[in-house]
Amino acid sequence: FHYFCRVAFFNGWIVAMSTLLSPFVALRGRSVENMKLLRAAILPLKHFYGIKMRVEGSEHLNIKDPCVIVCNHQASLDLMGMVEVIPDRCVPIAKKELMYMGTVGWACWLSGIIFIDRHKREDAIDVISQTARTMRRENAMWIFPEGTRNQDKSMLPFKRGAFHLAVQAQVPIFPIVISPYWDFFSSKDKKFTSGTCTIRILPKVDTEGLSPKDVPELTETVRRAMADAFAEMS
């Protein structure tokens, strides 16, 4: 019961904040600047749940130029980790299904979030190509390369979209690893208590001079570094 109450409050908070913010951000128009409002709405959740966020390697995320941020994906709680470190003018890339989730999808769209259809490879490639051409307008893109939530003890194979994007735009990749939630959260065991979450920002990976043929090796190199950090934090 405790687990379901906490999950319901988490989801209810997101919906309520999206509903309250949507009319205001609609007046401002679709803009990545609206992400600041979404971030401010989600930040208090960690206090309600008694979850302490500890950031390691923040000096690596001193971003002034466009880049691609890749992060592991475990659960909806990743939102709390994301807003803890997301740079200004950073645009997350999310699954298209989110766009149809009522006021939540509307608020996300108004905040400049880019939606991608995971089930249509050609459409996804088109979105990646268009994003690469316009990246100079934004500071960063935030992508979960596993493509779906994963609470296993190891990371899923990475989809290559984020790495194609970085190579096409010739921008660096910043890997971010969120530590396992096992101590305080598990959807399988219906556990949701207070605890500490560590967010580790790894050194950037340059892509300058790389071409599409380098993407498979680049993807595996970044995944290996992130998986090692995840295992260490476990």
UniProtKB/TrEMBL annotation:
Biological role: Converts 1-acyl-sn-glycerol-3-phosphate (lysophosphatidic acid or LPA) into 1,2-diacyl-sn-glycerol-3-phosphate (phosphatidic acid or PA) by incorporating an acyl moiety at the sn-2 position of the glycerol backbone.
Query: Which GO BP annotation is one of this protein's?
Result: phosphatidic acid biosynthetic process
What family, per the record? Belongs to the 1-acyl-sn-glycerol-3-phosphate acyltransferase family.
Question: Which PANTHER family did the record assign?
Answer: 1-ACYL-SN-GLYCEROL-3-PHOSPHATE ACYLTRANSFERASE (PTHR10434), 1-ACYL-SN-GLYCEROL-3-PHOSPHATE ACYLTRANSFERASE ALPHA (PTHR10434:SF65)
Which Gene Ontology MF annotations are present?
Answer: 1-acylglycerol-3-phosphate O-acyltransferase activity
Its UniProt entry gives the catalysed reaction(s) as: pentadecanoyl-CoA + 1-(9Z-octadecenoyl)-sn-glycero-3-phosphate = 1-(9Z)-octadecenoyl-2-pentadecanoyl-sn-glycero-3-phosphate + CoA; 1-(9Z-octadecenoyl)-sn-glycero-3-phosphate + (9Z,12Z)-octadecadienoyl-CoA = 1-(9Z)-octadecenoyl-2-(9Z,12Z)-octadecadienoyl-sn-glycero-3-phosphate + CoA; 1-tetradecanoyl-sn-glycerol 3-phosphate + (9Z)-octadecenoyl-CoA = 1-tetradecanoyl-2-(9Z)-octadecenoyl-sn-glycero-3-phosphate + CoA; 1-(9Z-octadecenoyl)-sn-glycero-3-phosphate + tetradecanoyl-CoA = 1-(9Z)-octadecenoyl-2-tetradecanoyl-sn-glycero-3-phosphate + CoA
Q: Out of the domains of life, which is the source? A: Eukaryota
GO terms for cellular component: endoplasmic reticulum; membrane
Phospholipid/glycerol acyltransferase domain span: 67-181
Q: What is this protein called?
A: 1-acyl-sn-glycerol-3-phosphate acyltransferase
Taxonomic classification, please? Eukaryota, Metazoa, Chordata, Craniata, Vertebrata
EC number, as in UniProt: 2.3.1.51
Look up and give the organism this protein is from.
Balearica regulorum gibbericeps
Q: What is known of its domains?
A: The HXXXXD motif is essential for acyltransferase activity and may constitute the binding site for the phosphate moiety of the glycerol-3-phosphate.
Q: In which pathway does it act?
A: Phospholipid metabolism; CDP-diacylglycerol biosynthesis; CDP-diacylglycerol from sn-glycerol 3-phosphate: step 2/3
- TM spans (from-to): 6-27
Q: Could you confirm whether the keyword Nucleotidyltransferase appears in this record?
A: no
Keywords for this protein:
Acyltransferase, Lipid biosynthesis, Lipid metabolism, Membrane, Phospholipid biosynthesis, Phospholipid metabolism, Transferase, Transmembrane, Transmembrane helix
Q: Would the keyword Transferase turn up in this protein's UniProt record?
A: yes
